[in-house]
């Protein structure tokens, strides 16, 4: 069924910052879908670092210049120029070493790890990203306020030029993989090569058994990135292999999160190309990329795609090397992973906990009882009323409960291209009339009521989400909400809706076919609340829910309004336009606004966060005033931790959620 | 016999073929495995994911044809190359199936064995004490357990047996008087209901049991015995002699002196070997050695039985063998208890030995005994849950079957010719009452393999149930079909086995005569 669509979509390239929420279950169930976007981003989300922006950029720059020494003198020079050092987030500077390293803790997650390479299409899932976040040093990561922080103790990034966009990454000379081979530019080279699509000569093929590949002479990396696809020339490596410079063919506003560290290049060089040691493996890899040696690249791509997939500790230690704070020391299938502190790690934030055990407990209530029984110290269970009640009951035992928002948000879109009630064509091309009907419909959506009835029981601090493009709590969100015009749509306004319908002069009742996930109870409840409210103003909502709603979204012939979730995986801005611009790949609704399209062009060329926010506000003003649709709430998340044993647990709505500050965790056991 | 078997196997083959076909078609129309892929917002990655899955799961082929592609992979099993396909995460279902099946067997075996032993015992006893207070109480309880939802029982057991018990251990393992008295009274009442005879005798025995229970409980509380439990050679010795006497009473009658002496000799041998065994247990113990010990013990017991000779040397040998197994079990449990405190104080356990989730404790180092204890503490709750649910079936069936047999004419004949009550019940009634249980067992094993879904979820085990459940939620056909195939096979095979067992147990039934 998806074949023609698949081909068509393949042609389209857009960066990913959002993913539909899983239809079947809220919260963590979106695990499986969470990451696709992250091939470009979730990697970027990883990392280390801590005290939220407390250290100044200048101090960090100088310290990085000093610590990376020698050949990385270039980073020192970039350090003198703050703007240049910002090319992949705000440089953090030196991290404080913990007073002492010791103790252990156990945390739970609901899905088992299955691939060490989370940049591939199938390996890209929170289940893999979280453990990798503990093991792999990160170029950058998000802090509590969703600021992008660059771990400049590991990699410094210098914006060499804006036109053409050129970014230079320099890896700390001391950084090394846990087998002793240095982490350097050739690893970044591999990350670019795999995701840029430059070397792919054909699609990934699988045999009858579904095993990827064995195709002669076809190179097919199972990874992609919108940003890196714009880097068409093979990057140059300099500074004795420590630096790599990427030159973009066109400007890309989200360049700070484009390149992330992936799997070790030298391991592939040894396994796939038969190199004897790390140095020669790196050389062989770089030569293959530079000379575009298809025979070698085929072997590289084959190994890259599936060579790092495992569900228990592999006998080959090279398959799970660490470049970060923790070493993977044990992995028992479907039960747990054990991480021990990497004694050599000094190129980023150092954790104070000696050992972290990462257990797999699929059932939310089971993880709460395990917390109660002291088997685990932290869990991030799927938010249900029962689970929240159960963790709240544990508060008197010293359990801390964080009620917060997750990465997925619920929203309603309306089709303007199906000759339905929201399409100008229905009214003889009268755009204003169609807009009034849409505005009336949005006014009937009881946003507050939905939040208080369905979300507050799961997250007492929940509020409506009032922005199409920004995650609540991220930089600029408050300013956005003040300016984007969402205040006009704060809550249901039946009288206002009736007025608008009367003004438009349409015959009531207006029938609206409403598409949402059939097997999702919460969405059914939302539908009922919207239905009741809309009826008062003269809209008759027809239940058009389906189990294959995701596949049917582009087919607006069968629905007039849709209700589903998007999932944010980073704070990149460019992907927003895919949702809203004229003929955007995720704008299924025929929405078109000249003002928004113009703002998108400017946004894609915007170089500073201030400019980006300015154009995002322009985009949202267009969306709200054109009555494109509405956003309702952010999915609730619960993090419960045993404060008697584990302290300083925090949570951000983007991957890796509660793990983002693991180096700040302290333990008393 | 052979034609019967061949006929059944061929019929079963087509049944499975038809069933898998229906299941596959239903599964492929249930939902779209691409759902998750459609949820990816980045169009490039979405297209890539859809293309990958379409190829791997052959979604470009209609479901009927897809079934035959699947069947071809399964057909490979006949030439030693099974292919169960891949799941939506592109993992091989075959390898997942292997580990899932292993975990399920671990989970289900103990539960089934314990449920049968306890269920049948309870059923027979309630049949013998029909319409007594005991009968009503037990009936009430088994039906209560039977009607409770599994997930709820699981959560409740975790709360009461694991969490509260661990709290109790951490609090010093001292009971208060109320508990001691209530527990003693319950035990007294149980003893009162169990023994037969005149009310005076029943009361006396009940009171004695209550007093003994009271003393034991008081001792255990005062010495915090539960923190560091052990039996010691004295208790092991008393238990061994009791077992020898009890086995003889049950199997041969204490009047059979040769059997009694065989059993007692075996028990004494066990007591004598108790101390030397501790050294044996200490060095590089493993499961194989344990099994070897059991075999040696049984052989020794059989030899003892034969040496005592007599007309009924087979019976003596059997009695001694059962005694040996049980005495061995007591010594084994005693040794496990000795590891308890070490286990409980391990930093990975932290003084809370009973676990609520997963099949083992992460990062636990320790010898065979520590690891075995770890398995026990993780298995005990799921086993109890499964057992409580299937207990009702076994106890009700065996009770009904026992009652029916007891009303048969030949039982009256046996009684009238002067056989002892023990012989009538154990030899004539009990054996025949077991025959219908073969059917229950066959059905139960199939249901347990497939039906432990909720128990697995509640206790965080990744076994057949989660394979099935995850497959269903993702509309992922291959794991679901793998689950379905295995449960179908188990159901069919156990049904054939039940038929064969019937023929073997009941001479009135002959397979193949049709």
Automatic annotation (TrEMBL), chain B:
CDD domains: TM_PBP2. Keywords: Cell membrane, Membrane, Transmembrane, Transmembrane helix, Transport. Residues 101-498 form the ABC transmembrane type-1 domain. Pfam families: BPD_transp_1 (PF00528). The keyword Lipid metabolism does not apply. InterPro entries: MetI-like, MetI-like_sf. GO terms for biological process: transmembrane transport. SUPFAM superfamilies: MetI-like. The chain crosses the membrane at residues 9-30, 107-128, 140-157, 177-196, 203-220, 232-252, 259-281, 287-308, 315-333, 376-394, 437-461, 481-505. It is found in: Cell membrane. Its main location: membrane. It comes from the Bacteria. GO terms for cellular component: plasma membrane. It is a multi-pass membrane protein. Belongs to the binding-protein-dependent transport system permease family. This is ABC transmembrane type-1 domain-containing protein. It comes from Nakamurella endophytica. The lineage of its organism: Bacteria, Bacillati, Actinomycetota, Actinomycetes, Nakamurellales.
